[in-house]
Amino acid sequence: MPPPDPQTVPVLLADFFGNGQPELTCKKGPFQGYDVRLRRPGQETRHIGFSLARNYRVEEPRPTPGTAEIWTFEVQYRYQNAPFGQKSQPLSLTVRG
Q: Is the pTM of this model over 0.85?
């Protein structure tokens, strides 16, 4: 079986749970999963997890009550234990405390 196309770009979607915590969705396809990166206001972009499934529940602490922040996510597929292909387009969400 030939390897996947290295020009593959993950398509990232998101929704919120009843408690306001974000959940990311990305089709997994032939990949092992995807790495998840997050940038919060005033912080550098950082790796927050790896998903073996289509959905990834973000377990980051939400902003303080009564405030909101814009969180920006990116994902990249993993294939043969290494990052593979392109990063997704940044996805920004307003997360409320």
A: yes
